[in-house]
Structure formats: C-alpha cells, structure tokens
Amino acid sequence: MASRPSVMIAGCGDVGIRLGLQLSRAGWTVYGLRRQAASLPVPILPVRGDLASSAVPRGWPNGNLDYLVYAASASQHDEAGYRSAYVDGLRNALGWLEQRGQRPKRVFFLSSTGVYAQSGGEWIDETSATEPTGYTGQVMLEAEQLALDCGFPVTRVRMAGLYDPARPWMQNQVRSGLRVERDPPQYSNRIHRDDAAALLACLLQTDLAGGDLEDCYLGVDDDPAPLHEVVDWLRERLGVTQWAEQTMTRRAGSKRCSNARARALGWVPQYPSYRNGYASVRPGKG
User: Fold this and answer.
1) What Gene3D superfamilies does the entry give (predicted)?
2) Which residues, 6+ apart, have CB-to-CB distance to 274 below 8 Å?
3) C-alpha pair distances (Å), 81 with each of 30, 50, 138, 282
C-alpha cells in the first residue's frame, strides 16, 4: 500500500487550516506550523515554531516531506513586517528543509495579486507585467523570486482579496456608510477563503497525480467587479441608507484578474461571485 502523501503548511492560519482539513479528508498526512500550534484542529498535526527563527522547530517531522505550502501572513503591516513574514520567514522555512535534508516534490508559495500595479480596469493574467509601486507588492515579488531560486519545483499562487462573511470587515465598512469612487470604476478582485483552500488542494492533488503545473496561478473568483457595485449590493442587503463623508481606502489598483488558468485544471469556485459569497448576509447578521 502506498504511503500517505505528506505536506507541511508553514504559517497555518485560516486558509491553511481549511486546506489541511481538506487534504486530511483525502488521506494526506498534514503538518501545520504556527506559533500557537496547539490550537490547530485534529487531524492536522501541530508543529510549534516561529518563522522568524533560523533554528529548526523541535516538532519538525523526520523523514521526507512531499510538499511545503508557505502560507504565512504579515502580523505587522509595514515594510519591515512584510519582509519578516514573506522573505525572512520563507528563507528560514527553506533553511529548515536543507538542515533536515528534505527535498519536497514542490513548494507552493501564497502570494498576492498586489504584485500587479495595473489601474485602468484592464484584464490581467499570470503573464501580465508585475511592476508594483508600493512596498507590499515589491516585497512579495522579492519573496516570489526567493521561492523560485530555492532549487525545488515551485508554484506561486497569487491570491486576490480573501474574504468570508463570518469575518465582517467589509460589512462593517458598508454599515459605516463609507463612500467609494464611481467614475472611473475601481475594479476589485476577491476569493472566498473556502475557494482559496480548494484551489490549493486542487494544485497539490494535481501535482501528486503527475499532472503538469505552471509556476504561477491567480486565485480569484469569476466576477471582478467595480467596488461601488459590491458596496451598493451590500448596502441594499444590509438595509444601509446613510452615507459618511469618508471614502473607503484602497491599497490595490483597478484591474480585472482572470482565473482561466486555474479553472483549466478543473477547479471550480464554490462562490463564483461576491453575491454567492455574501448570500448569508442580512441586517443584523454578518
């Protein structure tokens, strides 16, 4: 009987947990690394460790790991925090593999569509120019290059804005009446956290089965939409009528991201539009 495939999810947060549970149900051995690893749900095997340290965590598994998924997120939202989470942390995780003599079949790096600076509402895909002007995109591109140079097969997954109606950041923005620019329309891209995890699972299962993977995929739903359209829909859903003086701040540009490459693998988003993803939102709920 073939051994169970194994994966280490380094920076096992919300999306990592969802991915780990999916893979566990599919028969994988899943390790999750984070500082507070004891809170990880069974059957994810907890590994307590700090990505800021070059020392191999005590609970790091022996033997070979089939896959590494680097899914860290910045806890400090400035350039130093981004560099610590995405560049230094990735370098340390790759160093742990080297110290243990482990050679995974492939490394997956969770990146961001923030590496794109397009702002005219144009359609983009994995081959589009990456010329970010801010530190967030620039640091992420540096981390991507570090991954590509690691000596293992690497796939970058550039995720759009992750959301889940159970985490009501967007609803709170709408409830406060924040305004959005309407002319020109500011296109926004998003992906439900469940769909992000399912895409990663699809990539891992495809590689395990011997399928061909590209070195980059965009993780987005089917419906890049003007932000004012999303806000108007949520305002009606939530029964919000007032407008505030302040305008909703946006870090990203205005672009429409295509998920055609990911869909070609057979991945289909469960929540193809914000309308599906926020369907549970009601006044006083979510």
Assistant:
1) NAD(P)-binding Rossmann-like Domain
2) 190, 221, 223, 225, 230, 233
3) 27, 14, 13, 36
Distances, alpha carbon 170 to alpha carbons 28, 135, 163, 185, 258, in Å: 34, 24, 8, 18, 23
**Average pLDDT of the chain, as a whole number:** 95
Please state, in angstroms and rounded to a whole number, the distance separating the CA atoms of residues 164 and 126. Answer: 25
What pTM was computed for the model? 0.96
- d(CA 143, CA 263) in angstroms, rounded, equals 25
Provide φ and ψ at 31, rounded to 5°.
-105, 140
Packed helices 89-100 and 135-148: angle between N→C axes, nearest 10 degrees: 10
pLDDT tens for each residue of 151-199: 999 999 999 999 999 999 999 999 999 999 899 999 999 999 999 999 9
Alpha-carbon distance of 66 to 68, in angstroms, equals 7
Query: Is the pLDDT score of 30 beyond 50?
Result: yes
- Joined tokens for residue 150: 């690691």
Q: Find the angle CA(273)-CA(73)-CA(187) to the nearest 5 degrees.
A: 30
Give the residue carrying structure tokens 């507070």.
36
Whether 213 contacts 106, CB under 8 Å: yes
158: β partners: 111, 218
- Measured CA to CA, the distance from residue 138 to residue 222 in angstroms comes to 26
By C-alpha distance, which of 109, 196, 113 is closest to 156? 109
